[in-house]
Known about the structure:
The complex is a heterodimer.
Chain A: E1 3-4, E2 7-8, H1 9-40, H2 47-65, H3 69-90, H4 100-122, E3 138-140, E4 145-147, H5 148-170, H6 172-182, H7 184-189, H8 194-216, H9 226-241, H10 246-266, H11 274-285
Antiparallel strand pairs in A: 1-2, 3-4
Chain B: H1 10-29, E1 39-46, H2 57-71, E2 79-86, H3 91-103, E3 109-112, H4 116-128, E4 132-135, E5 152-154, H5 161-172, E6 177-183, H6 186-201, E7 205-212, H7 220-229, E8 233-237, H8 240-252, E9 261-264, H9 269-275, H10 277-280, E10 284-287, H11 295-304, H12 315-334, H13 336-341, H14 343-352, E11 355-357, E12 361-365, E13 371-372, E14 375-380, E15 393-399, H15 401-404
Parallel strand pairs in B: 1-2, 1-3, 3-4, 4-5, 6-7, 6-8, 8-9
Antiparallel strand pairs in B: 10-14, 11-12, 12-13, 14-15
Helix pairs in contact in B: 1-3, 2-12, 3-4, 5-6, 8-9, 12-14
Amino acid sequence: MDTIFGIPAVALYGQLMLGLINGSFYALLSLGLAVIFGMMNVINFTHGAQFMMGAFVAWMLLNWIGLGYWWALILAPLIVGATGVLIERLMIQRLYKLDHLYGLLLTFGLALIIEGLFRNYFGSSGLPYRIPAELQGAMDLGFMFLPNYRAWVIVASIVVCFATWYVIERTKLGAYLRAATERPLLVQAFGVNVPRMITLTYGFGVALAAFAGVLAAPIYSVNPNMGSQLIIVVFAVVVIGGMGSIAGSVLTGFGLGIVEGLTRVFYPEGSATVIFVIMAIVLLVRPAGLFGRA
Amino acid sequence: MSAKPTTVNRRTLLGTAAAAGTLPLITPLRAPRAQAANTIKIGVLSDLSSLYTDLAGQGSVLAARMAVEDFNPGPKGFNVEIVAADHQNRADVGSTTARAWYDRDGVDAIVDVPNSGVVLAVNQITREKNKVMIVSAGATTDLTGPQCTPNSVHWTYDTFSQPAGTGRAMVAAGGDTWFFITADYAFGHSLEANTERFVIASGGRVVGKVRHPFPGTDFSSFLLQAQGSRAKVIGLANAGGDFINAMKQAGEFGIVRRGQKLAGLLVFITDVHSLGLETAQGLTLTTAFYHDRNDESRAFNEKFHPRNRGIRPTMAHAGVYGGVLHYLKAVEALGVAAAKADGAAAVAAMKRLPTNDPLFGQGEIRQDGRKTHPMYLYEVKAPNESRGPWDYLKLVREIPVADAWRPLADGNCPLVRT
């Protein structure tokens, strides 16, 4: 059997594939963070809690109203996005004139409150959520046994990431958004409602987190801590990719998922740390991040 | 709002973050400092915010309260007060809380303590301060082995009793090659080592192992390695949220459908509830307590779950109840003043008294601090066998005391004179 660094090649391909799947979540979450930071200069620490809310809303839709996975994929981002709009209107909007840190502290506090409330109500061991019937089963790729659902996660994530990048970088709406970030007063003078656009941008970033949450619900246990376990890694991804760079955060997300997957083969104990080691190195060599504009 | 320039630099931010980290410590310190000489104060040190919250956590606090209610100390001439704190699964936080409780707040005994790392840290402090520690949710056998002290009692289960049931049963059923997926800290290492001993002693073989960061989220890489090893049994040496995620993802990757068996080495009823019977059916597990085992456990459950958000008592909760009840009996026998002054004397009194409570029946506490009672091997029911909410397990067999616990002479506990 072929081996690469002493590991059978087929096993390695399997781990690369798994890395890509984890990378899908990193990419979706860091994309939302990058959109929010890039357009609003807010470091959204509530992102993990909003990811968790997405999964919980999917669970509630199923168990309280009887709406299944596909509905949840559309409705949960809308519902959680709407709560994001409320948070932006009622709280974050008041902090734009202040230092970044105030936004960071506010959203961090909100995350703690939201997670505490969910934990109080739902406990910590998590709720079951089944893989939708259409995506059950798996295919044999020869080198690994790939569950259909995981394949769907990769596809959904790539499509959403590409669409978001396209809208922001290549359409007129995206041009307005980017212009509003650079010169809000001038854009407003042209008759564009900038505050509303910013509010909706935040809502959109939050909706992306919730979308990732729905995707995660059938794989991970739906529990109040699911976001806080992921969000620190995702922040590292954003820092490595370069704060505010849309394409950078997506590419870095997938790339680091793969690096982490490989670490799990060669040195499993280090797999929780490897991303932070990379972050430290990148900050030393390129403080603006791999894709950031200094 | 004044337009004051904001000058928050990185150092201030780090300071704020560090200060925020210590916030949970302040809560337990707020308890009134004045303590009557005839009040016994029990601190429930548990995980109140993370992956072990449902299997221990607030339920353990409730179980301690119920033990006090059932003991009814008033007519016996003393008071009992319960305090609680979150150790966040961090040995440093657990140690700081234990020191503050013993030194400043007059806590006489610490109970529960999920997370073996925290257990071993608090164990040393308890001995140094001559207090009492009764462990229920913590699992490491080191507590009654090389690190045993005259101040600690290990009540419910340990990393020997778990594989003694599940490990032996799996090997006997033909699962003679094993691959371990192990939580990378004291508990996982101890559980893995003890299980490995059982597997080898029963004629089996360990073909591989992998250690995952604690707590973990994604287990698919490790499961794939386990799959590649072609071991007949994949031993999950982890617990709570880690175990749940690993099981769920094993289902997704078709581990069982492709002929490998999963062995959950420390499984709680709350884990089964979270997984759902669809995913968990057929799983073999070893437990010290099941709420539907007999009339006493059912009566306890009926009083317990309405006060615990409907969550049924786990064996960790039952152990806190049994441990606190027995401790209070020992305090009564010894006298409050003597029990408060000398933790080792209180534990010695606990060892002298035979144990007898509604949840564990009759038993004893050995010289090394190990409380003994029968364990039970259960199997998770299929969805169509379950008659109602939380009706999850069927009894396979009882594991007698002689088989369930590590022999006294094998633990290398310095307290055991040979």
